[in-house]
Amino acid sequence: AQSVTQLDSQVPVFEEAPVELRCNYSSSVSVYLFWYVQYPNQGLQLLLKYLSGSTLVKGINGFEAEFNKSQTSFHLRKPSVHISDTAEYFCAVSDSWGKLQFGAGTQVVVTP
Amino acid sequence: DAGVTQSPTHLIKTRGQHVTLRCSPISGHKSVSWYQQVLGQGPQFIFQYYEKEERGRGNFPDRFSARQFPNYSSELNVNALLLGDSALYLCASSPLAGRGETQYFGPGTRLLVL
């Protein structure tokens, strides 16, 4: 069985500061990992995904994530956040049919 | 191009009633999945359909059912509603059904059961 654990339920951060959201996964097979963002009262939008190849994945809106097989992690980072980055962020792992198993989410609150 | 659309956007029902939620995938997408997102939690997988066949079912009771039509749109039906069914129901589509396929989500239907 595959699963992901998001280690922080909420991350407060000041505008223009860096942010890191932590995600650990568990899988007995090759993993395909995703980060999605959910803005208030909206659906989910893909930020980035890791399928294979380079362990550093760049996504939209200046986000990037690093796949670390030895630590079974897929942490999301942004060097400088904006107020508009206030949202909930979900890490997910895909099964062979593309079904997504999501983590509990990390709420990012950016303040001036 | 239009994204994934869902209807209705909001819905209020009472316990014991039945509800039907609808989803239209992105044009050309053949796979549709349904997720339930309870307030404060991550989305939970309910169903996946590909080419009108069920490809997966999550840990939900038989009160939940779904189908996919020849035009690839989909319906999610929930019978005998319980208070605990109150949630945001998300539909996602992808071109194919397979590991690594990006799923594109609609805005969701927010269901409140009183």
In brief:
By secondary structure, chain A is mainly beta. Helices cover 0% and strands 54% of the residues of chain A. The model of chain A has no long low-confidence stretch (mean pLDDT 93).
Structure description:
- The complex is a heterodimer of chains A (112) and B (114).
- Chain A has no helices and twelve strands.
- Chain A has 112 residues and is mainly β.
- The mean pLDDT of chain A is 93.
- Chain A has strands at residues 3-6, 10-14, 19-21, 23-26, 33-38, 44-50, 56-58, 64-68, 73-78, 87-94, 100-102, 106-111.
- In chain A, the strands form three sheets. In chain A, strands 2, 5, 6, 10, 11 and 12 form a six-stranded mixed sheet that branches.
- Helix content of chain A is 0%, strand content 54%.
- Chain B is built from no helices and eleven strands.
- In chain B, strands 2, 4, 5, 6, 9, 10 and 11 form a seven-stranded mixed sheet that branches.
- In chain B, a hairpin with a 2-residue loop joins strand 5 (44-50) and strand 6.
- Chain B is globular and about 35 Å long.
- Chain B starts with a strand and ends with a strand.
- The chains are: A mainly beta (112), B mainly beta (114).
- The A-B interface holds A 32, 34, 36, 42-46, 49, 51, 90, 92, 94-105 and B 4, 31, 33, 35, 41-45, 48, 50, 55-56, 58, 90, 92, 94, 96-108.
Structural class of chain A: mainly beta
Secondary structure: number of strands of chain B: 11
Share in helix of chain A: under 10%
pLDDT < 50 stretches of chain A: none
Helix content of chain B: under 10%
What gyration radius of chain B follows from the Cα positions, in whole Å? 13 Å
Instruction: Please state the oligomeric state of the protein chains shown.
Output: heterodimer
Shape of chain B: globular
Strand content of chain A: over 45%
Order of H and E elements of chain A = EEEEEEEEEEEE
Average the pLDDT over all residues of chain B and give the rounded result: 95
In DSSP terms (H or I, runs of 4 or more residues), the helix count of chain A works out at: 0
Distance between the termini of chain A: 41 Å
- Percent of residues in beta strands of chain B: over 45%
Largest sheet of chain B: 7 strands, mixed
